[in-house]
Design brief:
single chain, alpha/beta, Spore Coat Polysaccharide Biosynthesis Protein SpsA, Chain A, 9-stranded mixed β-sheet, globular
Length: 339
């Protein structure tokens, strides 16, 4: 086995009733060409055979560096990850779901990338999708016809906030610097660990993506991403969506104010502040008509050019005037453009 890491590595897996796919995922972690110093598994009070499967696996291979923790009460997967991160000892932490399959070179490729770029605090990789039987499936458009060239791209805060890049936790590794910022944030069961990590990494100027698939991501009825849709949301859905976005951004804002100002990238921080104003403007435009919002929309034209395109500018323009049919027609035109 290769042992290329210069820093210690933790793999963190959170489990709840995962007996159907769990053994296959455990094997894929055990078969990594670059082995982690520790694998920590947090079970959220499973009622199936998950705990037995994990214990049998650990005993089978005599894995002294693998530990299982059973929660005393159900937390839900968000808080389970959130709390478990604090107990990871590694300099780098890889997140793992219970139902995917890691490619054998995942840790090796991502750690080599980090060693070549010490500025990386958060690194995400691509993923290929499989169905419940492990067969390749291209349900999600962003997995089609990709050219994987190992190119490493820096993601700024605008991309993590304005553009859904499909950067998911199970294809992510974070530096302990990101984990250490948790102490500045109020424990919250609403926000996911991966979205939180992406935004903090970007605000610190250390969020990157490698153009290469590192896992097989299993799609089934419990996946949030599998339910992604390109439909035109109705008014109440849009209001709810924007309210949740603003709530999350304000959550990040309250925590970031407590972070050492010296490690925050000030250019990214200014974009972050503008993003809060932008989403509040969009929410206000939907709730009530105001001619001032037309001029405010124009003031945000740079955001549309940088992270969307003019199609979305005109969608919002017509929505300000409550001309929803026009907005819907523009939405249907050019569906292949970035969301």
């Amino acid at each position: 086995m290769h042992h290329i890491q210069l820093k210690s590595i933790t793999v963190l897996m959170c489990v709840y009733n995962g007996e159907r796919f769990l053994a296959e995922q455990l094997e894929s972690i055990h078969n990594q060409t670059c082995q982690p110093e520790e694998v920590i598994i947090y079970d959220d009070c499973s009622t199936d055979s998950s705990i037995n499967i994990i214990n049998q696996f650990i005993n089978k291979y005599n894995l002294s560096s693998w530990k299982i923790n059973i929660n005393k009460f159900r937390k839900g997967w968000r808080l389970n990850f959130y709390d478990a991160i604090l107990n990871c000892k590694g300099d780098y932490i890889f997140f793992s779901d219970q139902d995917d399959i890691w490619y054998p070179e995942k840790i090796s490729i991502m750690m080599e990338t980090i060693q070549n770029n010490p500025n990386i605090l958060v690194l995400t990789g691509f993923f290929k999708t499989i169905d419940i039987n492990g067969r390749p499936v291209n349900v999600l458009d962003w997995t089609k016809n990709n050219i994987y060239n190992h190119k490493v791209i820096k993601s700024d805060i605008g991309e993590t906030i304005f553009v859904w890049k499909h950067r998911i936790g199970c294809a992510m590794v974070i530096h302990k610097t990101i984990k250490e910022q948790l102490r500045h944030f109020i424990r919250d069961e609403t926000f996911t660990h991966d979205i939180w990590a992406l935004n903090i990494g970007a605000l610190l100027g250390g969020c990157y993506h490698i153009n290469y698939p590192v896992i097989q991501y299993r799609l089934h009825e419990n996946n949030v991403s599998a339910k992604y849709t390109n439909k035109m949301l109705n008014r109440s859905e849009r209001i709810h969506q924007l309210e949740e976005k603003i709530k999350f951004l304000e959550y990040i804002y309250n925590g970031v104010r407590l972070i050492n100002n010296a490690i925050i990238n000030q250019n990214e921080y200014q974009v972050f502040l503008k993003s809060i104003s932008f989403y509040k403007f969009k929410l206000n435009s939907i709730i009530k008509f105001n001619f001032i919002n037309v001029f405010r929309l124009i003031s945000y034209i740079k955001i549309y050019f940088s992270y969307y395109n003019l199609k979305y500018f005109f969608i919002d323009f017509f929505e300000i005037f409550r001309l929803r049919d026009f907005a819907r027609r523009i939405k249907r035109f050019g569906k292949n453009n970035n969301e």
